[in-house]
Amino acid sequence: MLCSLLCVASTVSAEHPASLSEIVVSGEYSGFNVYVLHPDLINAPAADSAQLLKKIPGANVNSNGTVTGIAQYRGMYGQRINTLIDGIKISSGGPNAMDSPLSYIPRAQLESLEVIRGIAPVSSGNETIGGTIRATSTRSAFTEEEQLTMHGEVSAGGHSVNSGYDTSLLMSMANQNHRMHVAGSRQDSDDYEFANGDVTPSEHERNSYEIGYGFKRENHEIGLEYVLNDTNGSGTPALPMDIVYIDADIVRGTYTSRWNQIDIESKVYWSQVDHKMSNFELRLPPLTGGGAGPGTMQRFSLADSEDVGYGIDASMSFAGGKLKLGTDGHLANHDADVFNPMSVTFRVENFNDIKRDVFGVFGEWQRELAAAWDLELGLRYTRVNMDAGSVSATGMIGMMAMNANALATTFNTSDLSQQDDNIDVVLKLNHALRKDTNIEVGFARKMRSPTYQERYLWLPLQSTGGLADGNNYIGDINLDPEVSYQFELGLDLRNKAAYFAPRAFYHHVDDYIEGIDATNTTAIAFHTMATGMTGSRAKLLQFANVDARLYGIDADFGYHLNDFWHVDGVVSYVKGERRDNGDNLYRISPANARLSLTRQQKNWSATLETHAYLEKDDVSGVTNELETAGYALLNIYGNYNIPKSGLTFVAGIDNLFDKNYAPHLGGVNRVRGVDVPAGVRVPGPGINGYINLVYKW
Question: To 10 degrees, what angle do helices 521-534 and 398-412 make?
């Protein structure tokens, strides 16, 4: 059995630890390693919770805007990663992932962020080809007493780089049978600064509200929560449009119980997202050529999504081990239209009546094979049903209208209904070589079906789930699911003074979905005329199945120098390439490392941290991906817990030397007439001083 708790950063006090990260393989063998990031009271001023992934080995974030981070793990990102928010999936309201999953828990309301290291178990969800990430919000908790007690937390902070502020409030009341809470947060900022000016538009405004109730008696527990997310006027300079608003309603219910030695967990949820985008309210619209009149290229886009999901599993003793059986589903509908506010006749049905319904059943068995040996076996079957409604484009003229109508006709007369039958298999072995050394080896077969953008994007556009490469794409209705054969080898070395946990991995992926040069002559003709009007250098690519591989190594490590000083670090390296032509896969981070030195006292801590990246020269040729220079950032931060007051003061400075750099996973700037030239990678924030005050009672 393994049981380890790793404190990698500052704690609040000896009585109330708030570790930055933990590697947890606890008690009875859980079958997988979980890297847990507890952001409570740590120094992380970013508005986007996804930015915290940079502190986790193998993880990173594709940044398209201040609140638009897309999770990446070991080179896979977006819908390849099973990202769960309080145990449920939330589909993005728009076709460019402006409301990526982790945007649904603001940083101030995040209780924990977990990444399952390596191969995700089949019980963790559907379509886990790129792994599983779980984000949990702060909420009420049951107590051991009959009397109701009140608890609360309020925080307020500000940051200099964008004149922004964050506020949050949680109030809860609970006893041994009831729990209830209300919570809210607000984030607001202007455009952020970098060494040569401002990144425009990068402002943001987001409000989030939650109310919840739970009841527990004996072996039964129910929970019900409602969440309202309200995002307004937020910039996404790496995308062709910005956020006008994102209104999301989320309802989730849970029920857990124990019947005759069988543990049952179930959930049901619903969400609805309304989303409006614009290419001219926060930025200048694209220029037009050929005598086009003013306002011709102004565009709005209205999109919405609606999800229904469920899950139920039962765990029991079986054949000397623990058996978990379950079923789950996620049914999503999507629509998106593009309008010209200066022309009532212009309208493009970008996506119409899209359906993507996923149903799964699984079985997972864990047991001790012998002394110091543990086994995990998992099998999952997933059915993916997809369909789309008819599309059209009106208000265009000449050959553009003719080509658009021809593409719509071809799409509408195609067999749009598609079904995939996907099989996942997991085998993992864990062996304790000695008390402080463990080795884990894993094999898996994982599958993922195409996204609705990859399958049903019929007109050359950049509605690509947030790829942000500046190119136009068309989809392919007949895409095959991705199939990844995965191998993992890990080692954990732990003692009282030090730890070292490296992982090596290799993924052999058949039918990997990526853009290739388009060959559809009608689409090429439309694309040529559209880009000619604006002077764009965008290529036209088509989503296609190719062969790929991803491999690398990541590790975390640390050493306690004495009772007061400790050093901690993370290193990550992944290489992604096509097996068929040797081209590099798009948007993969180069090798990087994070190293921190912390002074820890009873009531305060201080940390000096550096995060360094090598240059990115392994770039995707087909997407014209830009090379970027290597860089290193220096951060300093600390906190002070005022004894017996419930108050904690947090302060720090990021990018201490105001380094001018471009994050390798940032997108390409799409905005003209600003301090960042169009067509170059969006720079990262400059020097940023911040403070935060937290009060708990």
Answer: 140
Q: What is the pTM of this model?
A: 0.93
Cβ atoms of 75 and 104 closer than 8 Å:
no
Chain centre to alpha carbon of residue 90: 11
CATH number at residue 472: 2.40.170.20
Q: Which residue has the tokens 């388009």?
A: 518
Say how many Å lie between the first and final Cα of the chain, rounded.
Answer: 37
pLDDT of 93-127, one tens digit each? 999 999 999 999 988 889 999 999 999 999 999 99
Q: Where are the beta strands (DSSP E) in 586-665?
A: 592-600, 604-613, 631-642, 647-654
Residue at 156 is within a domain: no
- The two beta strands, 82-85 and 132-137, are parallel
Report how many domains make up the chain: 1
Q: How many C-beta atoms lie closer than 10 Å to residue 199's C-beta?
A: 28
**Domain membership flag for residue 104:** no
Which own/partner contact pairs does 76-79 have at CB distance under 8 Å and 24+ positions apart?
Answer: 76/129, 76/130, 76/131, 76/507, 76/550, 77/130, 77/587, 78/451, 78/465, 78/466, 79/127, 79/448, 79/451, 79/465
Which pairing describes strands 59-63 and 688-696: parallel, antiparallel, or unpaired? unpaired
> Does 468 map to a domain?
yes
Total number of residues shown for the chain: 697
pLDDT band at 394 (very low <50, low <70, confident <90, very high): very high
Asked, for residue 172, whether it belongs to a domain, the answer is no
Residue 40: what pLDDT? Answer: 55
pLDDT, tens only, 398-440: 999 999 999 999 999 999 999 999 999 999 999 999 889 999 9
Is 33 in contact with 118 (CB distance < 8 Å)? yes
Confidence of residue 48 (pLDDT cuts 50, 70, 90): confident
Gap between the Cα atoms of 675 and 321, Å rounded = 61
pLDDT tens digits for range 19-33: 333 333 323 333 347
Structural domain span for residue 588: 136-141+185-205+234-696
